[in-house]
Backbone:
């Protein structure tokens, strides 16, 4: 048992080391060579567009269910569905918007990135990049890392708005809350620092998803089966790390008063 | 030009190269033959430093490249080489034209306006035309291989490493590729290292032939000497006989 635990720890540390090495190489190539601008823009649009529909649907229904739950709870405690906008807005902007968007992108675009880079690895396309004078870090990883870091915060902002709109629909049309009350509940109590709280978290999530998914792709071994395994690992690792990171970021940002 | 001494490379507990010694002369075609899994691809991947050997040395034009670590320095070394991958390794997301001219951006100063012309020229050399706009997924296996060769030729490298250039091609196309390898030698003085199982092509194009067996070079010699050799391993291999010292394990 100790032997397998030891092996697990060594493997974990090796992977952290390899992923850190990849991030270091990214910094090296960013300084030493021009950015692959077209690739970066293409990837940003691709990641954003690929995840847009799922992110919208997820946040819309999350906003709706939050409003429904908050409305029912308030009704049973205070006999009136009040502060629905505030509850929906806070939950979305500070927590659910960034986390759920990151989940959706990791499952959709993150998996696609790992599968693409992994397939390139097992079909020797990564080796071909080396022989044609460029580096996979420069040509594949940096554009995708930047693309995730640009696309996810934008998608998060979009998800926040859609979620609040979902909450609005349920509050106004199902719970009978006047529309201006719902909007006022949001605008009065939710400030710029709340928006920043979620926005900063989404940037960290994005960078982490980019690192995990590119790393898993680059270190794929063993044909089609290997690509499948890498893709699953990339999504699972990203999702777990999103939740772990979320706790620590929330603690740090709260202590900083954001 | 390329001196390989006591080269060793393992993957886990599999010892693939166990002390390879080989000299590759400038402007010559050197063919490497040997059974599957004897380390032919591993050897040429070490030469272009896609793999790092554990020990031994590879000296290219007087420079020891065995243990270069820096990506920049490695990129500089690789500039001299072209590499034809066994399965082509074309970039799926790019068109044939973009694939062929891919290396020009990173390895040469060729203006972008020349790219289309170069793609057309190099594709014509391998017997293909009007396919620049297609994606690799729309090509047959043999066509992929030829596009990949056109991609290698586009950057005009001094040394070309071919990993089974004629496998998957019909006999006529195999002949055309063999002639092309000889043409590159005669007209441009390109040094070629060719891995092949096609003995007819090997005898046609080689100046030197080397046979890898159990991780070392069993024999490296000119074509005439190679054909006449009494070395039982080489003899069995070039005759394609199932009887001899090389025993294949066949599972029932």
Residues:
């Amino acid at each position: 048992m100790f032997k397998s635990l030891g092996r697990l720890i060594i493997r974990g540390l090796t992977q952290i080391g390899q992923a850190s090495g990849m991030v270091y190489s990214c910094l090296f190539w960013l300084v030493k060579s021009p950015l692959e601008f077209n690739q970066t823009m293409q990837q940003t649009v691709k990641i954003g567009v690929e995840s847009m529909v799922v992110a919208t649907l997820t946040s819309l229904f999350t906003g709706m269910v939050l409003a429904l739950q908050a409305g029912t709870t308030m009704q049973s405690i205070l006999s009136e569905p009040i502060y629905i906008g505030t509850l929906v807005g806070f939950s979305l902007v500070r927590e659910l918007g960034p986390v759920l968007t990151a989940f959706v992108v990791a499952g959709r675009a993150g998996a696609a990135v790992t599968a693409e880079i992994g397939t390139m690895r097992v079909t020797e396309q990564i080796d071909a990049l080396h022989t044609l004078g460029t580096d996979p870090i420069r040509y594949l990883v940096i554009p995708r890392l930047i693309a995730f870091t640009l696309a996810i915060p934008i998608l998060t902002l979009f998800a926040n708005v859609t979620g609040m709109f979902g909450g609005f629909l349920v509050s106004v049309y199902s719970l009978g809350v006047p529309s201006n009350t719902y909007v006022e509940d949001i605008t009065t109590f939710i400030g710029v620092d709340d928006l920043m709280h979620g926005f900063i978290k989404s940037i960290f999530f994005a960078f982490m998803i980019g690192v995990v998914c590119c790393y898993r792709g680059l270190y794929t071994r063993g044909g089609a089966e290997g690509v499948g395994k890498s893709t699953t690992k990339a999504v699972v690792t990203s999702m777990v790390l999103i939740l772990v990171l979320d706790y620590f970021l929330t603690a740090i940002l709260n202590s900083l008063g954001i | 030009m390329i001196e390989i001494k006591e080269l060793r490379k393992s993957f886990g507990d599999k010892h693939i190269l166990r002390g390879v010694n080989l000299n590759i002369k400038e402007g010559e075609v050197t063919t490497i033959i040997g059974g599957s899994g004897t380390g032919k691809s591993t050897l040429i991947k070490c030469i272009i430093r896609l793999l790092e050997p554990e020990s031994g040395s590879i000296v290219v034009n007087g420079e020891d490249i065995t243990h270069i670590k820096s990506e920049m320095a490695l990129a500089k070394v690789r500039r001299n080489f072209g590499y034809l991958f066994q399965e082509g390794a074309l970039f799926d997301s790019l068109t044939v034209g973009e694939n062929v001219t891919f290396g020009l951006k990173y390895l040469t100063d060729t203006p972008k306006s020349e790219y289309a012309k170069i793609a057309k020229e190099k594709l014509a050399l391998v017997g293909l035309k009007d396919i620049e706009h297609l994606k690799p997924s729309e090509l047959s296996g043999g066509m992929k291989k030829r596009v990949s060769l056109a991609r290698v030729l586009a950057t005009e490298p001094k040394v070309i490493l071919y990993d089974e250039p004629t496998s998957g091609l019909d006999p006529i196309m195999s002949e055309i590729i063999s002639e092309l390898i000889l043409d590159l030698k005669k007209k441009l003085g390109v040094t070629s290292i060719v891995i092949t199982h096609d003995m007819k092509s090997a005898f046609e194009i080689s100046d030197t032939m080397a046979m890898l067996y159990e991780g070392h070079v069993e024999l490296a010699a000119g074509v005439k000497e190679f054909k006449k050799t009494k070395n039982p391993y080489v003899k069995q291999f070039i005759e394609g006989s199932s009887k001899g010292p090389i025993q294949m394990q066949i599972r029932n």
